[in-house]
Amino acid sequence: MKPVLALTKGRVEKQFIQFLQERDFDVAPLLDKGRKLQVETDQFFAFFAKGIDVATYVEHGIADLGIVGEDILMEIQPDVFDLLPLPFGKCRFAVAGEPHSNKAFGKQKIATKYPNITTNYFRKQGKSVDIVKLEGSVELAPLLGLADDIVDLVETGNTLKENGLVVKEEMFSITARCIANRNSLKLKKAMLYPLIDSFKIEEVVR
Ligand code: PRP
After folding, report:
1. Which of 14, 155, 165, 166 to mutate to test the pocket of ligand 1 (most atoms within 8 A of CB)?
2. How, if at all, do strands 149-154 and 109-112 pair?
3. Considering the domain 4-89+175-203, what is its CATH architecture?
4. For residue 171, how far is its CA from the centre of ligand 1 (angstroms)?
5. For residue 10, what pLDDT is reported?
6. 185 touches 192 (CB < 8 A)
7. Could you give the CA distance from residue 206 to residue 200 in angstroms, rounded to a whole number?
8. Global pTM exceeds 0.85
9. Atom 22 in ligand 1: residue holding the nearest Cα
10. Phi, psi for 25 (deg, rounded to 5)
11. Are strands 65-69 and 176-180 parallel, antiparallel or unpaired?
12. Binning pLDDT at 50, 70 and 90, where does residue 204 land?
């Protein structure tokens, strides 16, 4: 028996593979997977999904562990065990928009992939905003007049810059996280803990 890991596709996936490489894991099957969605390494079975689905697979016990952005955990609050932060997937939430746009009257309209995070953030400031939920390329919304501003993740800042937008308010920082299915953690302790321990940041001494 090997642990089953749900991995977030895309940027987090690349950074996770590099993280494993630094810990001398066998990453060849992950690197050579082509379009395959499931692979087996010496240490675990892995499958690749969108972040939001990683949380769902872990919640339902299909995967024992998941590697997912903290943004997903904050937005959908899945019923999983949030085990530990990982030293990658570092980015920040920000309110961004066109440089000189300032809404003088009426409610601010915010486009975002994260309606819950956005609502909570503004609620804590005592502000009520209108939210337009988008699935991606959120930067388009202020440019095309769909919203006044956006709430989104900023990593390098390139997407904002190349689209003429600026950060108006820094919100908070996040990282990737290792999550676990609640039952797996109880029932498969002996199998999961060595792997979880090897993900702990302090483990690497160089
Ligand atoms: C994310 C985020 C920004 C961009 C920020 O989108 O929503 O658009 O990355 O990264 P940067 O600061 O390094 O430019 P993603 O690439 O996941 O695509 P999406 O817009 O389709 O969600």
Report:
1. 155
2. parallel
3. 3-Layer(aba) Sandwich (3.40)
4. 16
5. 92
6. yes
7. 14
8. yes
9. 136
10. -75, 160
11. antiparallel
12. very low
